[in-house]
Amino acid sequence: MKPHTFIYLVVVLSLTATLGAAKAAPKKAAPQNVVEAVPAPISTTYKVAPTLYAFALGSLPFAKPSDFLQQALGASLDFRFSFWKPYLQPYVSLSYAYSGGKEHVKGMNYATALAGLSYEFTPLTRHTAWRVVPHLVGGYTRGAIDYTDTNAAPVTRTYGVPQIALGVLNDYRITQRFSVALALRAGYLFEHQTPLPYAALLLGAGYTF
Questions:
Q1: Which residue spans within 9-104 are E strands per DSSP?
Q2: What's the sign of the alpha-carbon dihedral 96, 200, 80, 84?
Q3: 27 lies in a domain?
Q4: Domain range for 98
């Protein structure tokens, strides 16, 4: 065999072996577009969180009614919830109280229904458990007063008058649902003969639904 013929055969065999190995090698999978899971955006909508309060209350009359009425003691159920805008909440208060009398007045009992708006805020950003809720409410008071007339005869007079009140509620959350609450409230009863301004202290507990 001639030398150039041998070299030609070697080259042909080398090329054949290289092409065969390339065909036998497994093909790499084409890269695919990887779609990463994107977390859903966090909702910033303020959630409705109605809260019910049960209070024991005490109030003091001022001006002329303080001459014949003592401090009043009673109970109140207050309720607030988010309805219109974030942190701006309707506020409802239902209460009953009894006040002892002085001189010719034996006593007075009354029930009150109030409704209005409240605004909730957190005075300390690092302590969100404490919330302050100023509220402005108005409504109606229905009651009865027992007294003796000039002839020393017992008399019971019923009355119904409008009322307006401004208060501040302090709510301190001790668990996710329960809280302790303290409220201060000043009100005014629009009685045409003897208007009755008063200040009240309410102490109790709240439950958030």
A1: 51-61, 69-80, 88-101
A2: positive
A3: no
A4: 51-208
What letter represents residue 149's amino acid? D
CATH code for the domain in which residue 159 is found? 2.40.160.20
Structure tokens at 167: 């208060």
- Residue 42 resides in a domain: no
Q: What is the largest CA-CA distance in the chain?
A: 156
Q: Tens of pLDDT along the chain (209 residues)?
A: 555 455 555 445 554 555 554 554 555 555 555 555 544 443 334 455 789 999 999 999 998 888 889 999 999 999 998 776 667 889 999 999 999 998 889 999 999 999 999 998 888 767 778 999 999 999 999 999 999 988 888 999 999 999 999 999 999 999 989 999 999 999 999 988 889 999 999 999 999 98
Global confidence as pTM: 0.72
Return the structure tokens found at 4. 């150039």
Q: How many domains does the chain have?
A: 1
Q: Strand pairing partners for 179? A: 173, 206
